[in-house]
């Protein structure tokens, strides 16, 4: 049988081979998840919360092992992988508490002889499709609210990084989550998308990934009217205004840009800097970027690991060449960016950028920081909003009027004002426009796993 080969992106060596899950087995898993749903939804919220807490505890006990798995299959530097495990656990801890707060309402009746109540009920079996860039956090941010709500869930991890999911789910079962309340399949995105969207026992589909795939899944979901959550692509702008603290803006821009080698949906894609501070900002940015250490993420001093694969590298190089051809100036020449070969790419700052370049219009998913200048705030807001994406945006200003004006006028779901890392389990994460819909995290993040049922009692 055809096997899935999982490769270490730092060495391109195969680290594991897995069997694909046969379609019949996927269907049985869905049937079993449905049967288990009927009992899991009856398990009281406090018990569900305790099991989730135990899962979080076990993940912490296996923190180092899990972090190494993330680094081996995803290339992420070990220190970031450890951070991802903590981030992943924070969703479980958060939703263990939220499980106990799924309140209904009592509604005053419009007649004397009726009483009206509402209740929050779990939607049913969830199909989850997750990406390779956060193989732990993107999965717990779906599993935790689903289980807390009383749903059961089947996960389809990215084919590049399934090992983290397998270990996390093994620990969930060890913690007491019933075997079929959370399960995984090994399948291509295409097959899983088709099976999940067609199957009538899957009530909800939750997807994190690219906008083109998200659009296909939305179309495919129409026939079975799935409840769907879509966390799709981004093209995050960073605006550094003339009154910003430049050193702080540089430090936070680096955090927003180079996390996971620039491979996140919320990564700073386009950097707009006010003309008056452009030169100083670029000088300071280049000085810091040159200090970032590129290499195999298993080494403790590495800041930037490999990109996920050669296709990812080629896309980034294409954007760099396009920028060069249109007058962009690189902080290091293209050959020196590729000095380590393979999937490694040194981070680079591109100055003298204009808005026609690919790097300002296409999601990069790589370590390039393109900087373009502006003079008028309204012009830069217009540029920032001139995209079909609306996931994350960042800006730096110490003037509260400018800050509020930007907040009110930027069409983005996640906004960081003097903050390059606004994500967290306690906040609603999600995009506007073609960046998707539904929120993950915060009290909003459990809502997509719940239906409101209403009862009218005649007395
Ligand atoms: C993503 O890549 O969309 C996830 C980033 C985050 O949770 O901060």
Automatic annotation (TrEMBL):
This is NAD-dependent succinate-semialdehyde dehydrogenase. It holds the Pfam family Aldedh. PANTHER family: SUCCINATE-SEMIALDEHYDE DEHYDROGENASE, MITOCHONDRIAL (PTHR43353). GO terms for biological process: gamma-aminobutyric acid catabolic process. InterPro entries: Ald_DH/histidinol_DH, Ald_DH_C, Ald_DH_CS_CYS, Ald_DH_CS_GLU, Ald_DH_N, Aldehyde_DH_dom, Aldehyde_DH_Superfamily. Belongs to the aldehyde dehydrogenase family. GO terms for molecular function: succinate-semialdehyde dehydrogenase (NAD+) activity. The active site is at residue 231. The keyword ATP-binding does not apply. It comes from the Bacteria. The keyword NAD applies. Residues 3-454 form the Aldehyde dehydrogenase domain. PROSITE patterns: ALDEHYDE_DEHYDR_CYS, ALDEHYDE_DEHYDR_GLU. Keywords: NAD, Oxidoreductase. The lineage of its organism: Bacteria, Bacillati, Bacillota, Bacilli, Bacillales.
């Amino acid at each position: 049988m055809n096997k899935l080969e999982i490769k270490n992106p730092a060495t391109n060596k195969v680290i594991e081979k897995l069997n694909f899950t046969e379609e019949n087995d996927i269907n049985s898993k869905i049937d079993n998840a449905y049967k288990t749903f009927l009992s899991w939804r009856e398990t009281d919220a406090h018990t569900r919360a305790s099991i989730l807490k135990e899962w979080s505890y076990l993940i912490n006990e296996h923190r180092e092992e899990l972090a190494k798995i993330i680094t081996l299959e995803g290339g992420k530097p070990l220190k970031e992988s450890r951070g991802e495990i903590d981030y992943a656990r924070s969703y479980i801890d958060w939703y263990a508490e939220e499980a106990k707060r799924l309140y209904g309402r009592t509604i005053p009746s419009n007649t004397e002889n009726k009483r009206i109540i509402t209740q929050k009920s779990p939607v049913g079996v969830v199909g989850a499709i997750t990406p390779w860039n956060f193989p732990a956090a993107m999965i717990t941010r779906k599993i935790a609210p689903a289980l807390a709500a009383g749903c059961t869930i089947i996960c389809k991890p990215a084919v590049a990084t399934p090992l983290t999911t397998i270990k996390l789910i093994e620990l969930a079962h060890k913690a007491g989550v019933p075997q079929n309340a959370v399960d995984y399949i090994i399948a291509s995105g295409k097959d899983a998308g088709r099976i999940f969207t067609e199957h009538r026992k899957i009530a909800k589909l939750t997807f994190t990934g690219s906008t083109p795939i998200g659009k296909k899944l939305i179309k495919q979901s129409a026939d079975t009217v799935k409840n769907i959550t879509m966390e799709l692509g981004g093209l995050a702008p960073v605006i550094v205004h003339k009154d910003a603290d430049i050193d702080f803006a540089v430090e936070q821009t680096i955090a927003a840009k180079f996390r996971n080698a620039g491979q996140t949906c919320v990564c700073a894609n386009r950097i707009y800097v006010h003309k008056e501070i452009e030169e100083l900002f670029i000088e300071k940015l280049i000085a810091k970027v040159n200090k970032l250490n590129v290499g195999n993420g298993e080494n403790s001093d590495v800041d930037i690991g490999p990109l996920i694969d050669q296709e990812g590298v080629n896309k980034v190089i294409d954007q760099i060449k396009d920028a060069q051809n249109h007058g962009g100036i690189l902080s290091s020449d293209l050959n020196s960016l590729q000095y380590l070969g393979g999937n490694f790419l040194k981070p680079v700052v591109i100055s003298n950028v204009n808005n026609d370049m690919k790097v300002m219009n296409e999601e990069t998913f790589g370590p390039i920081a393109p900087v373009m200048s502006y003079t008028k705030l309204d012009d830069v807001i217009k540029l920032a909003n001139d995209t079909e994406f609306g996931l994350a945006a960042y800006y730096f200003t110490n003037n509260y009027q400018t800050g509020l004006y930007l907040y009110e006028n930027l069409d983005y779901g996640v906004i960081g004002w003097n903050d390059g890392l606004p994500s967290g389990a306690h906040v609603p994460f999600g995009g506007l426009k073609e960046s998707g819909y539904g929120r993950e995290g915060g009290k909003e993040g459990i809502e997509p796993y719940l239906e409101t049922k209403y009862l009218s009692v005649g007395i």
